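User: Here's a structure from my thesis project, written as structure tokens. My advisor, Dr. K., wants to see whether a designed sequence matches the one we expressed. Can you design one independently, without my sequence as a hint?
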């Protein structure tokens, strides 16, 4: 009884140590997620071992940091699909990661702004400045530094301040008239 219990405990400790060592080897080979799986296995087999837990958390945080760094780079390079995939991958490792959640929200907002700006540009192209300004205002409220929105805002303002290139006269003003000045000196006409 007691001897078999001790043997089982030692066997579990050895299995945990082997899993932990396998995890370290995998992490050294840059196979972070496989290493994390082995660290979890070691923690399951020996839950009181603080070294296993500390190593797991440190490795997980490093893996999440790497995914977030790559996701931010992809977002800055306007590769939204890759950025979204990397943020979601970071969340699989750390579901409550605020930076990954914020990154996904930023991607969603950016996509919504792109749709609004496309609609605003189309409306402006169809000479519907009111609709264009409305959609533009939404984007500029949420992202005042949006370059594309600022450019469209300037274009709308320029169009509003410039008079039309050709003034079209009504029919009443197109009729020719002639004025005769008889018995009047030219000097009196222009005074």
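Assistant: Designed independently from the structure alone:
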């Amino acid at each position: 009884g007691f001897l078999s219990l001790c043997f089982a405990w030692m066997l579990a400790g050895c299995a945990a140590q082997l899993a932990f060592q396998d995890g370290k080897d995998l992490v050294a080979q840059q196979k972070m997620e496989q290493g994390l799986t082995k660290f979890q296995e070691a923690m399951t087999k020996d839950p009181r071992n603080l070294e296993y837990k500390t190593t797991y958390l440190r490795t997980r945080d490093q893996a999440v940091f790497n995914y977030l760094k790559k996701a931010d780079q992809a977002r800055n390079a306007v590769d939204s699909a890759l950025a979204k995939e990397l943020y979601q991958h970071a969340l699989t490792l750390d579901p409550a990661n605020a930076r990954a959640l914020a990154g996904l929200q930023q991607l969603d907002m950016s996509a919504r702004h792109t749709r609004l700006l496309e609609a605003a540009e189309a409306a402006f192209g169809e000479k519907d400045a009111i609709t264009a300004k409305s959609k533009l205002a939404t984007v500029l409220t949420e992202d005042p530094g949006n370059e594309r929105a600022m450019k469209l805002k300037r274009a709308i303002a320029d169009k509003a301040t410039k008079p039309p290139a050709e003034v079209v006269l009504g029919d009443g003003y197109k009729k020719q008239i002639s004025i005769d000045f008889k018995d009047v000196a030219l000097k009196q006409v222009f005074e």
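When you compare it with your expressed construct, this may help: The CA atoms of residues 119 and 134 lie 10 Å apart.
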